[in-house]
Amino acid sequence: MKKILLFILLFISITGFAQQKYTDIQNKVKAAVHTYSANDTNYKFLTKMLASFEKAKKIGLSNFSKDHVGIAIVLSEENPELLIYPAKYTFNNDKINISAIRSKSTGGLTENMKAYVQKYLYKIEETGSTKFFRSLVLNRPVTEGTSTQNANEFIVDEPNSLSFVRGDEDWMHIVSIDRQYKTLDRPRIILYTFKLSLGGKDIFNTENTIDDIEQRRTTRLDNERADKEKYPLFHDFRTDDIRRLLQELVLKEPFKSNLDLKKHIEKLDTRITRFNLGDYTAQFNYFLSLDFSALRKKEPFEINEFLNIQHLSAHALADYYLSQANYSQAIDFYKKAAFDFPYEVSSGTDFIKDMERIIYDLSKTCYKAGRKDEAYGYLLGLIIDSQRNEALATKDLKAYLLQEKEDLKQFKGDLDKAMKTIKTDRKNHSCTLVFRNKTVFFYPLMEQTAATYQQQIKKTDFYNFLSQ
User: What superkingdom does the record give (predicted)?
Assistant: First the structure.
């Protein structure tokens, strides 16, 4: 009897909720839309979002049960003009949150939010390049909404709103309304739109074809690659940490009373990027002269990040001088970044990644400087023992040898001789290799014997290339 009663109550609850449908609120939604002027800049987007929702069918469960980022327009008496906000759809453990994102301090839009919205409306394939995109993706709001469905849509019931969800394989469209809409003359209504895939038509910019979007994406990637080649900066996302670390360092003695340091810190008044490294060479060089020994004694467990002020400075100087074709200076600073100011990280993998990039850039710099045997040697080091760069080093070294018309048989003989010179440098945990009287270094993740390396090199694609 109890089971039958429970089933009846559950059935009443489900069917009562399922009776909710978009057509119940359709007139209120259209009335709210008509309160706004067609001359409003964003009115065309509002009508496009509503038309797209009303044309859409029931969205597939697989897309309904994933997280998405998009945009939203809020219709309410508090909004005399149409503003478009970033939006997030979150699905977690069968619970849902649908949110229009606003500034916590002003309730409006920050400049980063506006940039995100503009990309979403006009160049949607570039949305991921905006500063706000990452924070939106990582945003994890509390999910309280429950869902059911009817023949045309899913319905999401949240504490303050009721939402109707439709879509297709490319887009998801949502209309939300105050849960108490039946008792309100003008309930708050929010229209949401979420792009689900890179394919399909762009509903906002209908002239955009898939080919147009792909072409712009390819062009953007090509430009980014060109910028990275012209303005190299390995620690792209870390170099600006110099400014943050210095603000903490200057609170400690003996740096607290260092007036010269404070003057240099004041010069760092904008974000450090690959494009403005040259503005701060004097500051980077000064930071390399700082003495951390006193701080090391007082705070041995907290000093690592502060030491990275020097590594990031040295590595940035090396990248800058490479961009200026000052190869001698670039080589000197790459070596300083490797040995005098090594990267302070707890992860051995991250350390090796940094070192291998330094070695690779040393090979490139030496080759451009006409020091080809050193360039060969550094690439050989990556081929002998590399976690991620063996294929790249092999490709480059093959290209160099063909370009220089090297005798492959002679090169193989020189390589065999060099393999017998491998030694371990206990001081800095690296290995050295002498190739054609040029001493170079490489960084193994786990040290091997010279005999083991001699056997390993013979199994590589590069050694087979020399043996052809």
Answer: Bacteria
